[in-house]
Amino acid sequence: MSEAARPAVLVIDDRDDLTLFCERMLGDDYEFRRVTGAREVGDVLRREQVAAVLLDRDFSQGDPALLLGPPDDAHNEGLSILRWLRGEHPVMPVLMITGHRDLATALQVASLKADFLAWEDVYADPGILGARLRHIVEAGRDPGEAVLSRFRELGIVVASPVFARTLQEIVRAVPGRAPILLRGETGSGKDSLAYAIHALGGDPLRQWVSVNVAALNPNLIESELFGHARGAFTGAAQPSVGKLRHAHGGTLFLNEVGDLSLEVQVKLLTVLERSEVVPVGDVKSYPADFRLITATSRDLNELVASGRFRQDLFHRIAWHTVAIPPLRERREDIAALAQSFLRRTAPFREGRIFSMTREALEYLVSLPWLGNVRELHGAMEAMSAAASQVITIGDACGVIGKRDLLLAPREPEPRSGGPGAAPPDRAACEHTAFADRSYRQVCEAYYRYLMLRTGGRLPEAARLAKISKATIYEWRRKFDHEGDA
To answer: What is the pLDDT of residues 34-76, one digit of tens each?
Structure first.
């Protein structure tokens, strides 16, 4: 391997024995750079392209002033550094070296998505260090699958390249504590992604506070967010901490931030600038330092232009802005999500594990899903409740057809009998023009799908849909020839 092509490996160790050993054994393949503590790591990783990190566990012989953890726990300093690394560089390949095999340490290291190797194994087989290092460097050259696997562990379903690129963008925004704004349609999964950012950003046990602004009572929103003092208003018999103080030291997620009133926006901006909050009816300020993640289904630029959202707050919360694609733009995810939702329903259906026919899945993939992931989730729950074990295309069309009947616009029937006549019976309307028209639309969409699926072969379409040939021929007469003659 040429000098210019050697990957750089950062060694974090309070002694130089690991670096010297690596240079002697692997110096032809890698360029090793050593630092003695975490405080130097950030500068190196910002300035240089590092392929992997080798990390010692025991820092008991180093300078106590450089330790991240408590001085009396210096023999575990490597774990403290690893936790910090995962917060700042979630997908950086890391190999931790310890003196002896230790199951407890190995489990901790594995939980932080790093590799583990004991010196006694290296002494027994000197080639093992090079093999392990080569493995993590190769994995780090294309971190895509590693990134996606971490999201999948958090319950995020991803199968489409479009959504995979979105997750890569999110990972780049995770390090540090800069605010993140998620933009996307209602039901596109912004809340799940916000929690994933929190979990990937370091210790997942940190405080996580989620607030749906649109669901808050407008008259109580300031009290809910900022807290209140006792007696601040009628009914305030006890003081309240509020969501912002509750999030201190952790992450605050404000969903539908565009619904905040201008008055609340001013107070929120003050909290973000000062990292402290003054509850309603109080004169004392309290610490409120948190990472802020916001989400909106509205166009904040338009709200700013119309004066309904403060420009200074917008710039404060939108350091990193990530657009979440709607489900119709990532169709590969539809089938994967449908299967995932079916697996989740098993415990609530007496342990029955459902499956879907290929035709049913293809039909779901063909739909626009304007309600995005949330709509698909609801549809899958309805199908699993209606079906026995295998969900067929008939089951899928039945659920979607009923939904379309409920959502279709209701046009009033023309009144008859002159002035003063009673309006037509509501039930009669639902069973005449309204119901017939909506059901017809559903049947026609299904018929078009069957024709596409079978290449226009009517007997095969009837067999596929498990309907009579008479029905499929009647559909052809209605939908293909209704304008003739």
So the answer is: 998 877 887 788 778 888 999 999 898 888 888 888 888 888 8
Question: Could you tell me the fold of the domain covering 8-142?
Answer: Rossmann fold (3.40.50)
The span from the first CA to the last CA of the chain, in angstroms, equals 79
429's CB contacts (< 8 A; 6+ apart) are 410, 412, 413
Give the tens place of pLDDT for each residue, 325-345: 999 999 999 999 998 988 887
Same-fold call for 8-142 versus 160-325: yes
Identify the helix (H) or strand (E) that includes residue 294.
strand 291-296
Instruction: Please say whether the beta carbons of 37 and 63 come within 8 A.
Output: yes
CA dihedral over 29, 30, 31, 36, signed as positive or negative: negative
Q: Which residues pair with 210 in a beta bridge?
A: 253
CB proximity list for 210: less than 8 A, separation 6 or greater: 191, 194, 195, 253, 255
CATH number of 160-325: 3.40.50.300
Bridge partners of residue 228, in order along the sequence: 240, 280
pLDDT the model gives residue 255? 96
Nearest residue to 265 via CA among 307, 297, 299: 307
Q: CATH fold of 328-412+423-481, please?
A: Helicase, Ruva Protein; domain 3 (1.10.8)
Phi, psi (5° rounding) for residue 94?
-130, 135
- Which residues face 391 on adjacent strands? 356
Tokens 């975490």 locate to 38
- Whether the full predicted model's pTM is greater than 0.90, yes or no, is no
**Annotated domain spans of the chain:** 8-142, 160-325, 328-412+423-481
460 C-beta neighbours (distance < 10 Å), count: 14
pLDDT band, very low/low/confident/very high, at 416 (cuts 50, 70, 90): very low
Separation CA 376–CA 254 (nearest Å): 24
